[in-house]
Amino acid sequence: MDGSAIKRALSMMNERGSGEGAGYVAYGAYPEYEDCYALHVFFDNIHETKRTLEAMLEQWGHIVHDERIRTYDQPNLRTVHIPWRYFFKPYAGLMAHSTSPEDDIVSQIVMKINTAHTGALIYSSGKNVGVFKAAGWPEEVADFYRIEDYEGYIWLAHNRYPTNTPGWWGGAHPFNLLDWSVVHNGEITSYGTNRRYIESYGYICTMFTDTEVVAYLMDHLVRKQNLDADLAVRALAPPFWDDIDRMPEKEQDLNRALRLAYGPAMMNGPFAIVVANHEMMVGFTDRIKLRPLVVGEHGDRLYISSEEAAIRAMDPNVERISMPPAGKPIIGRVAR
Amino acid sequence: MTIGSLPLRYKISIDRERCMECERCIDNCSYGVFRREGDRILVDSRKCTACHRCIAMCPRDAITLEECPCDYRSHPLWTRQAREAIYNQANSGKIILSGMGNAQDYPVIFDRLVLDACQVTNPSIDPLREPMEVRTYIGKKPSRIEVMRKENGDVELATTVAPNLQAETPIMIGHMSYGAISLNAQLSMARAVAETGTFMGTGEGGLHSRLYPYQEHMIVQVASGRFGVDIDYLERGSAIEIKIGQGAKPGIGGHLPGEKVCMDVSCTRMIPLGSDAISPAPHHDIYSIEDLAQLVRSLKEATEWKKPVFVKIAAVHNAAAIAAGIARSSADAIVIDGFRGGTGAAPRVFRDHVGIPIEAAVASVDAKLRSQGIRNEVSLIASGGIRESADVAKAIALGADAVYIGTAALVAMGCRVCGSCYRNLCPWGIATQEERLVQRLDPEVASHQVANLIKAWTLELAELMGAAGINSIESLRGNRDRLRGYMLDESLMSVLDVKQVGA
Amino acid sequence: MGKNVTIDAKGMHYTPLNRMIRQAVAEGSEEIVLENVLGQRFIANGLRGEATITVHGVPGGDLCMFMSGPTCVVHGNADHAPGNTMNDGKVVIHGSAGDAVAHSMRGGTVFVRDNIGYRGGIHMKQYDEKRPILVVGKNAQSFLGEYMAGGLLIVLGMDGSTYTGRGVGSGIHGGEIIIRGDVDESLLGVGATKLPLTDDDRMRIAPVIREFAEAFGLDPEPLINAEYTRIIPASSRPFAGKYTWE
To answer: Where does the signal peptide begin and end (chain B) (predicted)?
Structure first.
């Protein structure tokens, strides 16, 4: 499906935003380069920092193709960055002692570039996936990139009401690292704990916002800790102790162990989150349901949104609408 | 007598119009301040320790106490304490021992940290109506979870999780030994922790048989003196704590004055009646970090790996690296005791000058363990100078899993922090083994007071968490973003990893 | 399992080894023989009962720590701190042992046929009938019986050597240390004082020496009748004079 439907859906929820940030992510955006990591970069200018970045990429791998991301000027959208994309193949042999050397190389490059504050920001780094975001209203951002020109089999989109870093393109959602993308409504009150936890495993939070930590937590729990997505979500939004105490013994053991092992990854505060990777999309809310989340189903399509209206804007004939209980993950897997 | 007598520390006055000569003050003062001569009650203020027992027991509010009624010539450097210590040592040539915690006027870091609350961007949570989880598990956590997926789709845990203590509040009571405090004081606290679902330490004086009913809530201590340590004792405890050091006196051993070694204490410690119970400065089977690991494993081996083993160290300069070493042993929890920690008896020079504040120690230990990716595998307990629920919240936000309180629990039983614990004359029946004084402390009453304190602090902690939009203690732990430093210098804020107010 | 059990400890970790020992005791074994012991720590750690454990080889540190009842016979040298915080029972070492032998021992007996290292018998305790005993056949190194709060420590000097370590009984406030020959005044630790061994003392220690001699197949009489120095606390509060109160 192309990006026109999700643009329509997101526009339904303009009341939730402030016109200072919106974004889209499409899985399946680059079938012609599906073996390459698609790095989307915001350059402040292309004279100073582009060469530094490219030198680093050449050091760790091979740039198969690169180009300026096509954009179309919008009257109310001030272009403060130049978006660029690289299709990159890392040399796996350069990262010894790793079970996922290519991912580790790319992740490390992202952390290095984004912490160096040199006027380059890598905001999208997965294979066959692309994030498109900027500071503006959803329609403006969509038109800026002509989002309807992109095809995807999973789409996430977000409309921002910033408090912390208004106007900063990097601060708009979705946040992405490698295969993981996140959109988030709310504020994570446990961010200080989550960030310190995830940073002890080599991730570095660079976006001045709480949401990026979710992408890193998912990457850590699923890729490094080998948890299935549903267990990863349970680690992030676990059942209450008194609920665990009432479970059958084996279930208690599992849930208690998850909370003990991943307590610092647990997220607190109001949130409704959708995370995606190339094979699934997972939506969940905080444990006491402080943010809305509506789920729609139609055949093999799954929709997750803050409002039903947005789902119906995409698919007027949606078959089932439901509101999942707090903390329960809604998982949609890509049909093969 | 070239020095002569020193000015009074305290002056007791009796309002003769209010006094009805009931003699309760005479009965209650174990230091002998009051006596009756004819129809008057006379006062010897020099014997007073400011324990307030007479004031608390006077039915007519006839007694008042004044501190330092006679001034020295004021001098910012040559304080009263400095001068009096010199007079004392000029006369005696000895090391000065003192009771209670650090009495030096260092700034309290807790008082320069402020907590956060939610406004608009996220909602505060009302702990009266919505879930608020303060339950804390103390012990080794798995570094990762392995599961088995069964054919029917069920998931089962494949990882073996080491035994953890399940505390219903992150507030525990630290180790104060039988000997240092009375059996009634220990009993009161034991009932209180059983009632509130938390734990207390036995200290190094063994576990008296009257505490057996509460043993599931007791952490037994193995200190360098090994007093009262045998296999029964180790098996009775819910956990075992190796005491390496104490915040009030880092680098030196315990010192229970012979005055407090009565028959019962002599029995539980297996030392001669009336002898000083001196714990060696080091454990003589631990001269390096690998020896510590050996003792940890020896204790686990003796108890068949069923008990969590804690290691307690005094907060010293290198606490972070030491803690990282401890975390690599088989230890389940690390206790850091800050330099404000209390004591029954410590050399004054140690009490006031050795060690570092708990706030900085916890922050640096937490950071060090995180930098090595092992923070969550071991529990961190902060102690030494926790005075109120806000201190608990701040300690946890700086990185502790739980806290030990000590002096606060004694204060809940009536202690007035007079600091004369070493004299065995505690008129509140707490830091004494004198039967007539011990009888004054009724465990029935005192246990309620201690339980009340723990409950009240836990309620306040829940309120503070709720205001910060956090409904589980895990999300407060190490969440330094929810703290700000007020009038702290930049270097200390970088150690604490907190921003200044307004930032 | 029968009354006698033999366990081949070759290459085994101490945890399964101890588990097997515990199980054997639980199943009523009276004699447990461990073959090929090499460096396994904590053998018979915290063990209760009456069994006899015979160790062939060199056990690791903290042998019989917290043990309460059994007998452990070692054919070989022992490492660091055998009998550490032992409560009851008997350890017989046909060889030498390392530092801190019988550390904080509370009861029972440790016999070492040959030599022991530094700080033997440190902080041994005593109460009523619980009186730990450490007997060393040959000699011991410095700080013997440091902090001693009770118990009996005997150094037999069977090899004709004299005690030359320093700080004997440093901080001793209970119990007694008996050493073959004379101990120079300069070797006494803080708070220790020496006395000649009286006939009454000799009568008192004779049964202990006989038991020791029997354990190793020695003639007890020359040992009983030798010259000894007895070292005891000068006071039960050796450090009381060091402190004053605030």
So the answer is: none
